[in-house]
Amino acid sequence: MVKNKYLPLLAALCVGLAFGWYFLWSASTPKGQPPLASLTPGNTRGFANEFNQAAANARMVLLLSPT
């Protein structure tokens, strides 16, 4: 049985994991939008072409670094 003093910590951990999964690890996109992609040295040309095709629309690039 879990002691009462650990319940808030356990609840916070569960909420943190749920938020992490929802915002970081679930790679789903809204309907009508292309799936998420990771840039690699081999696919930068395709990314540049798709990005430039949408010049009339609002575009956003989000670069994240693990460091």
The ordered H/E elements are HH
Distance between the termini: 39 Å
Strand content: under 5%
Rg result: 19 Å
Poorly predicted parts: none
Mean pLDDT: 81
Shape: elongated
Characterize the main sheet.
none
Structural class: mainly alpha
- Give me the count of strands: 0
Count of alpha and pi helical runs: 2
Helical content class: 40-55%
Description:
- The protein is an all-alpha fold.
- Helix content is 43%, strand content 0%.
- The chain is built from 2 helices and no strands.
- The longest helix is centred in the N-terminal third of the chain and has 19 residues, at 7-25.
What is the topology?
Layout: H1 7-25, H2 44-53
Quick structural gist:
The chain has 67 residues and is an all-alpha fold.
Tags for this entry?
43% helix, elongated, single chain, 67 residues, mainly alpha
